[in-house]
Write a structure and sequence with these properties.
Elements (H helix, E strand, L loop, with lengths): L5 E2 L17 E2 L12 E7 L17 E2 L10 E5 L23 E5 L3 E14 L2 E11 L15 E8 L5 E3 L5 E2 L11 E10 L7 E10 L8 E12 L7 E11 L2 E11 L2 E9 L7 E7 L8 E7 L5 E11 L4 E3 L3 E5 L5 E4 L7 E8 L3 E9 L4 E9 L2 E8 L6 E8 L5 E9 L1
Parallel strand pairs: 4-5
Antiparallel strand pairs: 1-3, 2-12, 3-14, 5-6, 6-14, 7-13, 8-12, 8-14, 9-10, 9-11, 9-13, 15-16, 16-19, 17-18, 17-20, 20-21, 20-22, 23-24, 24-27, 25-26, 25-28, 28-29
Length: about 425
Amino acid sequence: MEKKSTLFMKRTTALLSAGLMLCLVHSNKATAQNFCNNEATLWSENFGAGTGSVSDPNIVNLSYQQLGVMNTPGTYRVIDYGDQNPNWHKTPDHTPNDQNGRMAIIDAKAGDIYSVTQTNANGYPAGFYSFNFWVLNLMGLGNCGPNSLIPVLRTTAEYQDANGNWVPMGNSAVTSPAIPETNDPVWLHQGGIFSLPATGNFIVTNMRFTISDLTAGGCGNDIALDDIKLSTCSDDGPVPVRFLNINAQKRGLGVNISWATGSEVNNDYFEVQRSTDAGATWEAVAKTQSAGNSSLTKNYDAYDAKPMVGNNYYRIRQVDKDGTSKYSNTVYYRLTIDKTDVSVFVNPFGSNITLDFLSERNQVFSVRVFDNMGKTVISQQVTIAKGSVRKTFPASSLNRGMYVIQVIDDKGETMYTEKLIKQ
């Protein structure tokens, strides 16, 4: 029997508070999770169940390919297993406890890929609404080589005004982090929370939500969509923190994690967490004090000096003053090592000189520091394991002034020289 999309309304008249965006990671099927506080589902689609390929009216700008290997950008099918191409993950759909559950399999290209208009004759009240979905990068890690195209999705929310025009809702549009290639199938929860403004005597009866792919067609831009949902986002009081964004970018030999908040209520601190197994386990890598209470945009950042080789997933754990906590969306940075590299962590330095190593193999290095007269003031051998390693050298006995640091590899070649200043 085919599963049906569900539609029901729970009317609310207050303007409600909710967070902007959330991303949850699951390596396989998972129990249903809410995307915002106290949500009430208005509509959902899980593409039904059954064997064999079918089309879907909400998939747009793509050609339905019923049979055969999928390797043409701009094609799709709705089916119950993922390996429609030999390089793709063999995976079931995302819907929990779903026998022969279907999902949308897409060999994507840049442009809109899914659009749905929801109509309620009684009208939608002003407030916050969540539109979210689960997405999987179908391409197995490395199957497209170093130039693999990584999908990035944008979610747009609109309402139809009194003149029939489509008008962006508040917070529209929301752009996902890159949907990474992984060794095993990883479903990511994407979408956004959007606000419908008050429209006076006019009653809004139509809202439209669109998922767009921002990546060009080609090897790697291959995704599965499932469990798409529209909900109201009501809450009895203000949420402790409204996250606006989170980014992870390379800085030196480590990763800089930056994020912003739109508001904070009784917030205590932020904990930056990292996962190297697609969200199965997490560890804290940094802690940052918060503004506490704010109605303005606040920007934060933290540094991970020792990321692991491969995919590093990051999220922010917000801790309230009463100990309760919530999480930001999840982003990732992929660390690759082309050659051994060295950098100074802080310059000017204080009581210590700190070096970050990114090594392609286990190695022994000689580290020397010279004063401005050419005299050796520090000389030490260090053993560095493959990957990202930080080493600290005591320097409190050094006078203020200019120094030069030199790193020599196990072949006797100077691989790094840098001027330093002692404060």
